[in-house]
Amino acid sequence: MGAFGIVNRLSLFIVMICIGLNQGMQPIAGYNFGARKYDRLMQVLKLAILVATCITTTGFVIGTFFSVPCATLFAKDSPELILAASRGLRVVVMMFPFIGMQIVSTAFFQSIGYAGKSILVSLSRQLLFLLPALLILPHFFSNPIMGVWYAMPFADALASILSATLLFLEIKRFKQKAAAERLKIEG
After folding, report:
1. Cβ atoms < 10 Å from Cβ of 113
2. Which of 85, 88, 122, 170, CA to CA, is 20 to 30 A from 12?
3. Which residues, 6+ apart, have CB-to-CB distance to 146 below 8 Å?
4. What are the CA-CA distances from residue 78 to residues 2, 83, 171, 180 (Å)?
């Protein structure tokens, strides 16, 4: 249990930085959406996804290559706990380069008034994908704890695919709206 606590704290540290980024992105995205400045809205979205991806990729690099020093910060006197937490951390951060987009998409949909899509993306990782994976994956590993660890990147992958699909469809719509707005201005 201690290893899960350590990995959760380390993971949340990276995720919280992205949530802070979202706090800055939301009013800018909402303003540009309301003003029908779809080109600027897309610039804001792309920049937020880029920055969030850089943050989560940094978390991936740290979690993958420095998992033992990270775990040691929380468990100096327990080599078994350090080993368990460092192994778990390397598994959990596996999909981190892709979750930045997922985190940003939740806030983006909320900021432009698409609450349903925001809730779907937000809950998809925890409810739609993680809970079933936690129940199913441990049966496929000789050590069921590894199934619990792998459930997290599995859920991240599926939630990222869902959010990327929803974002792609919205970006396509916004590009069409931006083109229509440019035609109005020119015509």
Report:
1. 12
2. 170
3. 91, 138
4. 10, 9, 49, 62
